[in-house]
Amino acid sequence: METTTISRIGEKTGQAATVRGWIYTPRSSGKIRFLIVRDGTGYLQAVVAKAEVDPPVWEEAGKATQESSLEVTGTVREEPRAPGGYEMSASKVEILGSSENYPITPKEHGVDFLMSNRHLWLRSSRQHAILRVRSELEQGIADFFYERGYVRIDSPILTPAACEGTSTLFETQYTEEEKAYLSQSGQLYLEPAAAAFGKVYCFGPTFRAEKSKTRRHLREFWMVEPEVAFLEIEGLMDLAEDFVCSLTARVLERCQEDLKRLERDTARLEAVRKPFPRFNYRDALEILRKKGFQVSFGDDFGAEEETALAADFDRPIMVTRYPASIKAFYMQPDPKDPEVVLGLDMLAPEGYGEIIGGSQRVHDHDLLLSRIRQHDLPLEAFQWYLDLRKYGSFPHSGFGMGLERFVAWMCGVPHLRETIPYPRMLYQIYPSPRPPLYFCSLLLYDSGMKGTISSTGQFTVPKSVRTRYALEPGTEIEFELREDGALLRKKRSDRHPIWDAIGSLKGKFRWPKGIPHSVDAYIDYVRGGSYEELTGRKPPVRRKK
């Protein structure tokens, strides 16, 4: 029998259908087995009644464990209480691939554990919904620009120079004599294309060697960047406004089930309508001062300032005309106020911060040349970029929008790590068979000692600590961390009292969920944030009575 996707199972109401997928959750109630099946398009409850099927079918259904792949055949009927609104009375069940001891069970798990199993976590309903919203947005972005006559240009990933500053560059060895860098933005390569096609955009991966571990930062993310010839700052703000409204409306229309699964308050998204409030930077400073912020001209806005500025509005706001000293070299100065540039940042409500950054570009050759020199950038690397201002220069503007930040806002997700299939953050590149240990803190409650484990495998006792083990300040102990989280001495001959301290703690306190507990001391993995940053809670560790 031909298979049917769960998203179209309603078309088979009253008829027999066959579905292939995976067991999301199995449960049994005496002589009835309930199999929640997922196939990537939706969820379907298959009911196997012992009295209505042959014994082999009943036994086969009993083998259906979480995430087993299977084929199930039966009659479809409407059932409002079931996931998706339909239910199948199964007559045949065939397990195609077994799944024993699937690690991500319905119980609560810690973020570190889930991120270490990201390749499996993608199957969970919440992650599934977030990535479906992401997919819809990606298609919406392409449709928005295609319908308006834009040409898509694929900007290179390897570049010879910085676009957004040299402090966040990923360096590669391009040839024996020459270095190259992973792209921070496709913008510089879009500007020549705008001279050829008028309206262009690029959409692809972008890399920033961010030192930050905040919820708003990734080291690899996807960015969409339009660039338009003869467009000036006011027109750019209109374009950004239309773009955001179009994408938001699309998510509300086409991702209703996903938003419902995420428990997203859609009323907040329905409020996203034109016009968006617009402020210049100097006005924004006054607003922040009234809210108690100590800010002055030339200060860049961080997460707290962005949140405060957008807090009074139910839709995004646009802040324009930032000081030239804190913006990129290619931004056009305001002819009425040369201290500021014709740039904009769009800030989302609900604390999601900047989602779009853009500007009108410098189109005067000599001014651009002076800006390149002011920023101490290698002139030879930008000679081709200067050429654009020598051969038919023209006013032009563009912006960039990080897809992950927009997805987070649409889904109501607090951290970007869930908005991309495989997030790349500071000290994290996974999934990997063994979770890497970077900067950790080891807290020994018996001794009252606190120290720091470095990535080189050394435990250093701070000078401020005095313990009953009389450890000398600055003492370093070599260790190994086993895959299951056990902390081991590197040398069997090491008789340092620290190991006695670790050994004395076995079973004396309760471990947080999701944290490996074969270690006899609490290890807080700082992988994108401390335990408290990741969960919003203090580690629930109890002292020895």
CATH domain topology of the largest domain: BirA Bifunctional Protein, domain 2
Please state roughly what percent of the residues sit in beta strands, choosing from under 5%, 5-15%, 15-25%, 25-35%, 35-45% or over 45%: 25-35%
Radius of gyration: 28 Å
What count of helical segments does DSSP give? 15
State the domain count. Answer: 3
CATH superfamily of the largest domain: Bira Bifunctional Protein, Domain 2
Uncertain segments:
432-475, 481-487, 497-537, 539-545
Biggest beta sheet attributes? 8 strands, mixed
Distance linking N and C termini: 64 Å
The total count of strands amounts to 26
Helix fraction, binned, reads 25-40%
Structural class of the secondary structure composition?
A: alpha+beta
User: What is the 3D shape?
Assistant: elongated
- Broad CATH class of the largest domain: Alpha Beta
In spatial order, strands of the major sheet run 6-10-11-18-17-16-13-12
CATH architecture of the largest domain: 2-Layer Sandwich
The quaternary organization reads as single chain
Q: Roughly what is the average pLDDT, rounded to an integer?
A: 82
Would you summarize the structure shown here?
With 545 residues, the chain is of the alpha+beta class. 26% of the residues lie in helices and 27% in strands.
List the helices and strands and how they pair.
Layout: E1 16-29, E2 32-38, E3 43-49, H1 55-62, E4 69-78, E5 86-97, H2 111-116, H3 118-121, H4 125-147, E6 151-152, E7 158-159, E8 171-173, E9 179-182, H5 187-197, E10 199-207, E11 220-229, H6 233-254, H7 256-261, H8 266-270, E12 278-280, H9 281-290, H10 303-310, E13 317-320, E14 333-334, E15 337-341, E16 343-348, E17 353-360, H11 365-374, H12 383-387, E18 396-402, H13 403-411, E19 424-425, E20 428-429, E21 440-444, E22 449-453, E23 458-460, E24 476-481, E25 487-489, H14 497-503, E26 522-525, H15 531-535
